[in-house]
Design goal:
This protein is an all-alpha fold. It has a single domain, classed as Up-down Bundle (YheA-like fold). Helices cover about 75% and strands about 0% of the residues. The protein contains 5 helices and no strands. Helix 2 runs antiparallel to helix 5 and helix 3 packs antiparallel against helix 4.
Length: about 130
């Protein structure tokens, strides 16, 4: 039995999973959403403007504050867009699945029985409270 062959088989199974399919569709929808792509482009321009203003020798604090506010506004619009909400939801589900796959692999390397080990990661979904994946 070749481990890489089995890993390739796992890759195929993952690509057939509904969570992967949902994520792939959401990613494609984001890529094809002109308004969203324009907002992301605008965000990147504002971010570069802010970085430039913040690095100037004679900083214009009012301009920096204004650019910060514009940047936050554009970011909020991006994150509130229907396409981005779906993308983030789909990505979280896919990430959770991959976390569980990694738990199975890690615990198997620790000698646990892959058939009976538990995959509950205890993940709350909030990285701010995370002590790291097991």
């Amino acid at each position: 039995m070749d481990v890489i062959t089995k890993a390739r088989e796992l890759g195929k199974v993952i690509q057939q999973d509904e969570r992967f399919i949902r994520f792939a569709k959401a990613r494609l929808a984001n890529d094809n959403d002109t308004d969203l792509q324009n907002a992301i482009g605008n965000f990147n321009i504002k971010r570069m403007e802010l970085e430039k203003a913040a690095s100037e020798e004679n900083k214009d604090e009012e301009k920096i504050k204004e650019l910060n506010e514009e940047l936050r506004k554009v970011y909020g619009e991006i994150m509130a867009s229907e396409a981005m909400v779906e993308y983030n939801t789909a990505k979280a589900l896919l990430d959770q699945m991959m976390s569980e796959v990694n738990i199975v692999l890690s615990k198997s390397l620790d000698g646990e029985d892959p058939e009976t080990l538990t995959v509950d990661s205890g993940c709350t979904g909030s990285c701010s409270t995370c002590g790291g994946c097991h």
